[in-house]
Amino acid sequence: MTTEAVLYDEPGPKARRRIRIWTIVAGAAIVALLVVAVRRLAERDQFSMEKWGPLISPANEDFASVWRVIGEGLGNTIRAAVLAMLLSVVIGTIIAIGRLSLGRTGRIPLVGLVEFLRGVPVVVTIYFTSRVLPDFVETSGWIGGEQLWFLVIGLTLYNSVIFAEIVRAGVLSLPSGQREAALAIGLTNAQTMRSVLLPQAFRIMLPAIISQLVVVLKDTSLIAVVGNYEELVGAGERLYIILGNPIQMFTVIAVIYIAINYTLGRFAQFLEHRLSRSSKSAAVRVEQEATTAGA
Amino acid sequence: MDAITENLDAFWSGFLTSLGICLWAMVGSLFLGTVLAGCRVSPVPPLRAFGTWWVTTFRNTPLTVVLFFFAFGLPAIGINASFYFFGVSGLVVYTSAFVCEAIRSGINSVSAGQAEAARSIGLTFGQSLTLVVLPQALRTVVPPLGSVIIAMFKNSAVVGAFGVGGDLFSTGATLTSAQGYANLPVITGVAIGYLAITLPAGAILQVIERRVAISR
């Protein structure tokens, strides 16, 4: 059921007229806002080719090199996000299994870890990895550059506990008959987890995992304010200082981000829709975990 | 641990600054998010389009990009303000998209019969929304809204890292880089500061969640 169907009836002639009036008023207000914004931008010379050229005109001498830097930035963003996701899924699954199979007292350190890391801002964990790690381990020779790994580890610290919660919710949402049946045919606890519960849980969790990928992609940009790894936003930052076009540069960066994340978000919705058709109740609870991350 | 005990004052004032940023951002984003949710469920097409555009844009853009826009984009067109104002505004704009979606999903969770009953006794769209649907929706909305606000408190660290200064995160950064304190204890202190808010808030939220869960 859609929202509009809940909140109002099919409008009659009077209501239609009222809606038409509001449409004109709201439309005019939005157009007025746009006009003010465009005029302001034009006054300050923000539509000049000098500022847009390097980004949109292939004839511009800087065009190729600017897009090469942006492309490399995007590549670095995706590399960091994918690495962090893979690590987080693996570590998160291990934490979740631990939490599900340990006894009441054995669980305490894991619950503590999850609560601790969930409550700390990601920018702090990234700051932590990029400042504290070099004090204790030799990081300079790491493959791919130490800055990449500071970012990846910082993101993993946070996201692995998010995934632990997603996996846990996924496993707990399965009907208890699954586990009982698996144990009844003689599988051990570990076998039950590995070959019966986790495969089903992962299927349910798929939309949540993809939604979380959006969060991770956005969070890679945090290194731009605390570290030295040139991902998409860092690349944009360096370029706009040279070219003197912050508005144009970050518009392009934002559009790239929105295009990727919107597509991923729609894909997650599509998967969720398909899952909720095949298995009635499960996808709902897990999804709630993921949307709350919000960062 | 000397780094923490010697600088308790700095940590405390940083903590208060972070709280201040959050309080402003919370008021702003709750208000803006509610208005946007109203737009998105209204029968007026331009308002719906505006709400959808807003949510799509700001939910999919990293907070850092929003902040860059505010802090360096706006001065380029002659809008100048303090970093504090830009930081809070960026946080409001970013968070409002999440608040809007939380409220909208709450509105969707109110059963159709409620709105139908409201209409059948002659309430207008505005009345049925404000008197019948929203009061019920807000109850379901409390848990996700709480999570959004907790996430916003954590995001205030990004605003701090961006250069607002004086908040919990940048206090830690100054202590380590400018005053030469060791990294580990200072960052631990910063983490404790954030946990002091997020953990109790999360616990309170769980209690509320359990309370309102029975209402439907």
How would you describe this structure to a colleague?
The complex is a heterodimer of chains A (295) and B (216). With 295 residues, chain A is mostly helical. Chain A folds into 2 domains: 3-44; 55-291, MetI-like (MetI-like fold, Orthogonal Bundle). Chain A contains 13 helices and no strands. Chain A has helices at residues 3-7, 13-43, 49-56, 63-101, 104-119, 122-136, 146-172, 176-184, 189-219, 223-226, 232-243, 246-278, 282-291. The longest helix of chain A is centred in the first third of the chain and has 39 residues, at 63-101. Chain B is mostly helical and 216 residues long. Chain B has a domain at 18-167: MetI-like fold. Helices cover 86% and strands 0% of the residues of chain B. Chain B has 9 helices and no strands. Chain B has helices spanning 2-6, 8-41, 45-60, 63-76, 83-109, 112-120, 125-164, 168-177, 183-213. In chain B, helix 2 packs across helix 5 and helix 3 (45-60) crosses helix 5. Chain B is flat and about 70 Å long. Chain B starts with a helix and ends with a helix. The model of chain B has no long low-confidence stretch (mean pLDDT 83). The chains are: A mainly alpha (295), B mainly alpha (216). The interface between A and B is large, with 65 and 65 residues.
